[in-house]
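re: ur question from yesterday

yeah so i grabbed the chain u mentioned. its 336 aa long if i counted rite. heres the sequnce exactly as i have it in my notes:
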Amino acid sequence: MSDAQQSTLERATMTAIVAPRYGSSEVLRTQTVPRPVPGDGEVLVRVRAAAVCKGDVHLLTGKPYAIRLGFGLRRPKDPIIGHDLAGEVVEVGAGVVEFHCGELVFGAVDAGAFAEYVCVPVERLARVPENLTVAEAAALPDSGLTALQGLRDVGGLRAGQKVLVNGASGGVGTGAVQIAKALGAEVTAVCSTRHVEMLRSLGADRVIDYTTTDFTRGADQYDVLLDLVGNRSLTDYRRALTPKGVFVSSAGAPGGDWFGPVLWVGKVALTGLVVGQTMRPLLMRPRRADLEFLAGLAAEGKLRPVIERRCPLTAAASAVGHVAEGHAQGKTVIVV
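ran it thru and got these structure tokens back, copy pasting raw so excuse formatting
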């Protein structure tokens, strides 16, 4: 093969982390695959960093099994996993005027972020604030959007209200504490002992160590309770709410391999129909306006992702395995 042919081949291919079948992180492989081409309304991003989220674990394992109806019955339809990313725009598709080549952007895709390049719809991207690194920007989308939409849109959180975040030490939780403070709320964070000081440093007004204190048995009640764990009964959660409080669930009690949190979501919604308190499940949807809102908070110094681990693309399997284990502090980021 001539040098020119080799160069052409390199431009047409890329390195990616591929899941040839459903399973644990051990099934992931580093492979050379065709580089994608942006379609109408898309840009091609050279990925500089990608963050691991719980959704990546679900799509890798294919559990709960119900999700395979949409993502492939026997194996993943798109074998390149990964949702959250930040990087440089290197090509724009037809009709794109929002972004230009050379700009640093961050956002979310359905799959494909664990690779050197990925095509992203423009409505799922925003520009990286100057005061964030690409690794920090990659850690924003899934966690930041879930926290923002859960607190502001579903929870209706307003300045001066009291909010409790259950499971505050993870990616969504650390974002939720900062976003709630930025919205003017009084914030109580629930976590294990080793995360207490970190959450105080993020601005939590009060931190409850669940290994020593049961927040559902205390005298305090909250206007909004954002649950990211699903480790208590709805009766317990309701006890911690004010009479007109709002419970927002972005987690689910274990529901088995077939349906996972689906049964919990239904239970939350049905309970909300018969009690005075508002009980709502949360389904996050990536939106450019919300990504830009997060970027604005970050630019003002009110939001900064907590990153626990950084690793190279070739160590993606280890990164996904770490997140699958649970109990992470903040985000795990793959640097490409």
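noticed a couple things. The mean pLDDT is 93. also The first strand starts at residue 13 and ends at 18.
anyway ttyl
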